[in-house]
Write a structure and sequence with these properties.
The complex is a heterodimer. Chain A is about 65% helix and about 15% strand. By secondary structure, chain A is of the alpha+beta class. Among the domains of chain A are: about 170 residues; about 140 residues, no CATH class; about 110 residues, no CATH class. In chain A, the strands form 2 sheets. In chain A, strands 4, 5, 6, 7, 8 and 9 form a 6-stranded antiparallel sheet that branches. In chain A, strands 3-12-11-10 form a 4-stranded antiparallel sheet, with no helix packed on it. In chain A, helix 5 runs antiparallel to helix 6. The relative contact order of chain A is 0.07. Chain B is of the alpha+beta class. Chain B has 2 domains: about 30 residues; about 80 residues, Beta Barrel (OB fold (Dihydrolipoamide Acetyltransferase, E2P)), CATH 2.40.50.140. In chain B, about 30% of the residues lie in helices and about 35% in strands. Chain B is built from 4 helices and 8 strands. Chain B has a 5-stranded mixed beta barrel with strand order 2-4-5-7-6. In chain B, helix 2 links the parallel strand 1 and strand 2. The radius of gyration of chain B is 24 Å and the shape is elongated. Classes of the chains: A alpha+beta, B alpha+beta. Chains A and B meet through helix 3, strand 1, helix 13, strand 2 and helix 14 of A and helix 1, strand 1, helix 3, helix 4 and strand 8 of B.
Chain lengths: ~650, ~140
């Protein structure tokens, strides 16, 4: 009975979405306020039914109602409670419903927040958001329904269970965070479309969405970082980023979104770049939907991909419609999109932002090119080609380093034009810091990109430091405050600016971490108890090999003692080899899984994988990787999140 | 020249540099692992392709042999359609590697043997396929 209610809720939501669009459209024609109110309530009705459907599915997952196909596929009686809930986004139809759920939460917030604000913009904002909801409602109602019952001719007494790789706390958080980011860009997109339709392209719409864009950007960044963190700790290939099509699918909208949150500052302050901002948000939203398409269509082979399905063409049509309609409207409004002001000088903050924007878009294009190159190559030359990480690294490392340099240069430029005297004054200390770092590194014996990356990092850190120091100094001179008080006052007076600098510092940390990749070391070997082997100056001794049967798996546990060159004890590592579904009578259904163990410091990670076991002879097969500076990436991620929260923190007034 | 024109020229300049850079890297990748051609097992054997390639196929049932002296070394037979190919692989095997699974191998073909240095398994089917055929266990068929 309850599952049927879920299906009906989705049906009703779809019906309400049609009514909403119709009512609000009528309102925009005749201006009747009652229609606007009705439309808002109908739109809230859609969200209500979507919430209902989502709660019903979650409840069925918790209850293990295997009469529902989705529940039988992704959970079993043994699945721990938290992963029964996270199964909601583990599979195709559930994750689409979850996507719709988040969009409905956002739509509800937008409607409630703007009941008395932005009256001219709101009708079209709601229509745009509801049309996006409608698309996902069509998918969940008619293409891949999460409430589809199990086939009637057999009873499922226990379900498949969740993939052990997904039974990880990060994996329970990563997809929702990413979705919150992806879906979050629908709101700025809605406002953009509304501004275009109304022909009011002044900075008004930008002011109403600056926070939304930043929130969505924060979630998207966190989602991407968590994904890397999960891959690093769970997948066992020792890396956090592989330029996999689906990773790229989340990275591309992040790049255009990052450009967007920079360039809207220019439109807010100077009313320039109207056309550019409009294009950026449309690109970002399109890339979010396109990213979902890449994940679902099976066009790309990837660790993330759901199997090939009928969703591809539907998604592609939707992407095509978004592009045609939005850019068509931009063409129609091309006169209103002309900015009243012009750039004055190359050495201005405005042009710094413009260059940073161009580099972001260029980076996005190169990722796009590499991701789609296999498809293009197959269509044009008929040969199937796969593009690996070396290709992306070769193209993107130089572009990324230019971007890092601009991170330092931009904030030191003044609005309109920076005079020669100021240029010298602002840049002397940071450039000297960068150059001396480079000299020291070259002297130690480092070469190539490593030197450039670290020196630029030092340069950017110096510019951020200078900015903070100068601001604090000015306040102390004026108000006679203590350093701490001056710092707090200064930041809270201009949160987005100083929050932004903190984010930049996080980015520097991450670049340091990325650079560490150049020094990775690895070795695969076998050990019996008491034997030792060496990797990167460390000695690994197998002390013990034990076995254990646990609730949902069987495990072989190794005990590795790690000592350094001087023979000093470093740590004990306990990587495990596990067999999930070990009670299954059919050996083919049992699933092996390597649970890794990592010893991590700011300096380097020692990453151990228990790749295989010969239990008769007591031999463990171990793979060790020594990855320098990886922790800098995660610390950088924390700094980035902290900085964004500072920038987002609401003012008291 | 007014500043708008200067900016316009600058932008055009940057765009053309980028297009040049991307196409240059696409034509001359620095690393042989940057781009790999996907070929069928038939093509590989018939054309005797000796550069680095990627192949897809199924692991033939019962063909996996693991070296007694070094557990990492293994050989197996890759089947694509009716064509079979001996594959040698000497690194950590993915957890899901076993008889009958679909794998993608990357490496070089020399004297009738494919020396793989990358081995990926595809496992999606277990989670998206027909519940009746793919399910782990505990299905009770109803007699009708």
């Amino acid at each position: 009975m309850t599952p049927i209610a879920g299906g009906v809720a989705l049906n009703l939501a779809f019906g309400f979405s049609i009514l909403t669009v119709f009512t609000l459209f009528l309102h925009t024609r005749n201006g009747d306020q009652r229609l606007f109110l009705t439309g808002q309530r109908l739109a809230l009705g859609i969200s209500f039914f979507v919430f209902l459907a989502t709660f019903i599915l979650t409840f069925q997952l918790i209850q293990s109602n295997f009469d529902i196909d989705y529940v039988a596929r992704y959970t079993s009686l043994e699945t721990p409670f938290i992963y029964k809930i996270s199964a909601l986004w583990a599979g195709q139809s559930g994750s689409l419903l979850f996507w719709l759920f988040i969009l409905s939460v956002y739509t509800t917030i937008v409607i409630l927040q703007n009941q008395r604000k932005h009256n001219s913009l709101m009708p079209w904002v709601i229509i745009t958001l509801v049309i996006v909801q409608m698309f996902f409602l069509i998918l969940t109602n008619y293409v891949t329904n999460p409430f589809k019952p199990t086939e009637a001719d057999f009873i499922v007494t226990n379900g498949n269970g969740l993939n052990p790789l997904l039974q990880n706390v990060t994996m329970a958080i990563h997809p929702p965070t990413l979705y919150l980011g992806f879906v979050g860009f629908s709101v700025p997109f809605g406002f953009a479309i509304s501004a275009l339709i109304n022909g009011d392209t002044s900075p008004l719409w930008i002011q109403s969405i600056r926070r939304w864009a930043l929130v969505a950007w924060l979630f998207l960044s966190m989602g991407i970082i968590l994904g890397g963190w999960w891959a690093y700790r769970e997948l066992g290939w020792g890396g956090y980023w592989a330029w996999d099509p689906v990773e790229n699918a989340s990275f591309m909208p992040w790049l255009t979104a990052t450009a967007f949150i920079h360039s809207i500052i220019i439109q807010e302050k100077k009313d320039m770049l109207r056309l550019w901002n409009m294009s950026l948000i449309i690109m970002t939203f399109t890339l979010c939907i396109f990213g979902t398409f890449l994940t679902r269509s099976g066009v790309m082979s990837s660790v993330h991909s759901f199997t090939a399905s009928s969703l591809g063409p539907i998604f592609l049509t939707f992407v095509f419609l978004i592009i045609v309609v939005s850019f068509g409207m931009m063409y129609f409004r091309r006169n209103e999109l002309k900015s009243p002001r012009k750039m004055e000088s190359f050495t201005s903050r405005e042009s710094g932002f413009l260059f940073n924007n161009m580099v972001f878009v260029v980076l996005c294009f190169s990722v796009f090119w590499g991701t789609l190159f296999p498809v293009i190559s197959e269509a044009v030359r008929g040969t199937k080609i796969t593009v690996g990480p070396p290709f992306f690294n070769q193209i993107n490392i130089p572009i990324g380093l230019i971007l890092l340099a601009l991170t330092g240069i931009g904030p030191l430029l003044a609005w309109r034009k920076t005079g020669r005297k100021n240029l010298i004054r602002n840049f002397t200390f940071p450039i000297l810091t960068g150059l001396s770092t480079a000299t020291i590194l070259l002297f130690i014996g480092f070469r190539g990109y490593v030197v450039i990356s670290f020196s630029l990092g030092a340069f950017v850190t110096a510019t951020i430091g200078t900015e903070f120091a100068r601001g604090i100094h000015a306040r102390r001179k004026k108000f006679d405050e203590s350093i701490i008080k001056a710092l707090i006052r200064m930041v809270s007076k201009n949160r987005s600016r100083y929050g932004g600098y903190v984010v930049h510092l996080g980015i520097v940390f991450m670049f340091v971490g990325f650079t560490g990749h150049a020094f990775d070391d690895e070795k695969e070997f076998s050990l019996t108890v008491g034997e030792t082997d060496h990797v990167a100056g460390y000695t690994f001794e197998l002390l013990q090999l034990s076995e254990a049967e646990r609730a949902n798996h069987y495990a072989w546990i190794s005990d590795l003692r790690v000592t350094n060159q001087e023979g000093t004890f470093v740590t004990n590592l306990h990587p495990e080899k596990r067999i999930y579904f070990h009670n299954n009578p059919d050996p083919n259904r049992r699933q092996p899984h390597s649970e890794l163990d990592i010893y991590t410091t700011m300096n380097q990670d020692i990453y151990s994988i228990f790749s295989g076991v010969d239990s008769e002879n007591g031999v463990a097969f171990i793979k060790i990787m020594v990855n320098p500076l990886v922790r800098w990436v995660w610390v950088g991620g924390f700094i980035l999140v902290f900085g964004t929260i500072v920038a987002l923190w609401p003012r008291k007034d | 020249m007014n500043s708008n024109k200067k900016f316009f020229l600058m932008i055009i300049g940057i765009i053309s540099m980028v297009i040049f850079w991307i196409s240059w890297v696409s034509m001359n990748p620095a690393d042989e692992k940057a781009m790999t051609t996907f070929v069928s097992v038939d093509e590989l054997i018939n054309d005797n392709i000796n550069h680095r390639t990627k192949l897809g196929g199924l692991v033939k049932d019962g063909s996996i042999a693991i070296s007694k002296t070094n557990y990492l070394d293994c050989t197996f037979v890759l089947k694509e359609g009716n064509t079979e190919l001996d594959v040698k692989y000497g690194r950590t095997r993915p957890d899901l590697f076993k008889d009958g699974v679909e794998v993608i191998v990357t490496g070089q073909y020399l004297n009738g043997v494919f020396y793989a240095d990358e081995l990926q398994t595809k496992c999606a089917s277990r989670y998206e396929g027909d519940l009746r055929n793919e399910s782990s266990y505990n299905l009770n068929e109803i007699d009708s």
